[in-house]
Automatic annotation (TrEMBL), chain A:
Source organism, top-level taxon: Bacteria
GO-annotated molecular function: electron transfer activity
Family from the record: Belongs to the ETF beta-subunit/FixA family.
Signal peptide boundaries: none
Domain Electron transfer flavoprotein alpha/beta-subunit N-terminal, residue spans: 21-209
A single cellular component GO annotation: cytosol
SUPFAM superfamilies: Adenine nucleotide alpha hydrolases-like
Organism: Brevibacillus fulvus
Protein name per UniProt: Electron transfer flavoprotein subunit beta
TrEMBL record, chain B:
GO biological process, one term: fatty acid beta-oxidation using acyl-CoA dehydrogenase
Protein name according to UniProt: Medium-chain specific acyl-CoA dehydrogenase, mitochondrial
Source organism per UniProt: Brevibacillus fulvus
Record-stated family: Belongs to the acyl-CoA dehydrogenase family.
Organism lineage: Bacteria, Bacillati, Bacillota, Bacilli, Bacillales
GO terms under cellular component: cytoplasm
Keyword Flavoprotein found: yes
Keywords, in A-Z order: FAD, Flavoprotein, Oxidoreductase
Amino acid sequence: MDILVLMKQTFDTEEKIVLQSGAVSEEGVQFIINPYDEYAIEEAVKLKEEFGGQVTLLTVGPKRTEEAIRTALAMGADQAVRIDPGDEPLDEFGLSKILAAAIRGRKYDLILGGNMAIDTGSGQVALRVAEELEIPHVSAITKLTLQEKTAIVERDVEGDVEVVEVGLPFLATAQQGLNEPRYPSLPGIMKAKKKPLEQLTIADLALSEDELRPRTTVTAQFYPAKKQAGQLLSGELNEQVSQLAQLLRNEAKVI
Amino acid sequence: MDFTLSDEQRMVQRTVREFIQKEVMPYEQQVLRNEREGRPGISREEIKELQLKAKALGFWGINTPEEYGGANLGAIMSALITMELGRTFVPFSFGGSADNILYYCNEEQKKRYLLPVINGERRSCFAITEPGAGSDARSIRMSAVKDGDHYVLNGEKIFITNGNEADFAMVFAVTDKEKGANGGVTCFLVDRDMGWRSEYIPTMGEWGPASLVFENVRVPEENILGELGKGFELGMKWIGQGRWAIPARAVGAAERLLQMGIDYAKTRVTFGKPIAERQAIQWMIADSAVEIEAAKWIVLRAAWMVENGMDARHQSSIAKLYGSVMANQVVDRVLQIHGGMGYTKELPIERWYREARLWRIFEGTDEIQKRTISRNLLKGHVKVGELL
């Protein structure tokens, strides 16, 4: 059972978002493994412990990403591949091309990723990778049971559960509830540095300029508007209703 | 010069912080509630359960040699871990550790004392202090008189941590009055069923030491720890180990407290502005941050010296003194920032305030540390402005 895990290093959920000249500042910020990716890592390590095989992490990120990689290796993954994006402006389109290119030629029975990254929240990259590799994908899974050549997967569909049978190899993204990620163990931490970490650059993947060109652009980033204090209506019920209707028409301009 | 932690150290730090946050901090409300009602905050079983959970992750015997199943992580890692443990007031620490002097047990004693303590089956207490001998431990009076192949112990010990819960005590007694601390003090391993009694001493804090009474307690000769007459040296070794662990814990506590103070200052509005915008509050925050920063690096330097086999006694005294005073100042300011709320038992600040006061007293008072530090300088063991 060889499993690939797609991982992203993201902002610590406890960090404050600071906008600096229109972009989110990374200065002095702590980074963590994207929490949804942690579920994916845990599931991969659990499956490895049950069925054997190798767990390989793949991530696109700068040098600082290595801290997240070491943590995942300490949790029990066997090896990792870090692709340095350099200064290349990338969006989900290019990222999935990069990951797919890094995956081609590797042996795998299953690819796991997070349902989405908590920073950008787009939830696209993993599924795009599956499309690139032309394998089936199942998103937002909460249970995974492997059989001979297929798997029974439960996925979260807006609060309901959908049960899917899917043939290997396939890609799945982890939803909250799939498992409870373990802490890195002390022996795991001590061994993490000795596990293989393959370093690639985009140039190593022989992708064309067009394959990397972003299909989207971020035009602006801003804080959500501060919540205004509410307005209390008074008087008889009839008066209140007519006041409300007027306000909705003239001020809120919604009717 | 490089202040960066290794990847392993950072990962350990992060893992322990997460463990404390997710597994131990949830007990905080229970601890406050129980203690308010005069019960132990957390039961021995609950501690054991947490320790086993940590053991499954390999966090066991942080300072215990590998041949005893420990992780033997060294002083720097220990200091970092202790700082993390200090972030909660829940009296939790990782299992698998024994008093450093129990490693002086002979093979037979190891089976009865060292190993059961490491495995959490037996509890020890360290009994040197007497009503008339605290910081001046050299003047202990408890007597041990030889009678056949036994020693007969008579006297009283006081302020003994875990004295009421321990299954055995490491007792320091005078075997040769003439020689006193210079070769006349011996350390005995004394089981509770050999006949000593203990009584709990209520204190200002939640730490409840005990007084121990020895009336003709007969201890077999083979229960001498180390050598006859070499007890005082062992006692000093035991005390030495706590010198940088206490300020490490204090750093963790102070960081958590300062964060509480900052959070509260930003939300509490008086006269139309959050108090965080008042200079009086800002100065308290700044002073606390500066002192925490200083204490942290003093502790880590002491730990670094220990790890590198250097004589860290001077630096450890500085760490113990500065760290304990720092924590008392920080908790006092944070209590002040919280105003009346800080004084209530709804918040843990007053509890920490009471606990922190002990840090300036036990295992070498502020004054003893100052005495050590100044003597080192006056006698020239350490020179002012020595090249680093």
